[in-house]
Design a protein that fits this description.
The structure is a single chain. By secondary structure, the chain is mainly alpha-helical. It has one domain. Helix content is 41%, strand content 9%. The chain contains 3 helices and 2 strands. It has helices at 29-39, 46-55, 65-78; strands at 14-17, 20-23. It has a two-stranded antiparallel sheet with strand order 1-2. A hairpin with a 2-residue loop joins strand 1 and strand 2 (20-23). Helix 1 (29-39) runs antiparallel to helix 2 (46-55). The radius of gyration is 13 Å and the shape is globular.
């Protein structure tokens, strides 16, 4: 969850980062989130991101705004998003 997006999830088919590649074609939003976490997120953040997805309501798009912005609050308060309390 980010505060600004230039491309919708429908425009992104393959995501490539320093950590790996996630082929998102034909995947649901939840499947896309899981692929991105496993293949593209930094290993330090994977457990936190998995936990975030677990805490999101079931449905089409997994979002929990309070939990998403908790990452940003942790950064503001401690200087490191990994200090988030989910």
């Amino acid at each position: 969850m980010v505060s600004h997006v230039d491309h919708t999830e429908h425009d992104v088919r393959v995501l490539i980062t320093e950590q790996g590649i996630a082929d998102l074609r034909g995947k649901s939003p939840r499947q896309r989130a899981e692929l991105i976490i496993e293949n593209c997120a930094h290993p330090d953040y994977r457990p936190l991101l998995r936990r975030y997805v677990e805490l999101t309501p079931k449905g089409h798009t997994p979002h929990n705004l309070a939990k998403a912005y908790a990452f940003h609050l942790a950064l503001q308060e401690t200087g490191d998003m990994r200090n988030v309390k989910l």
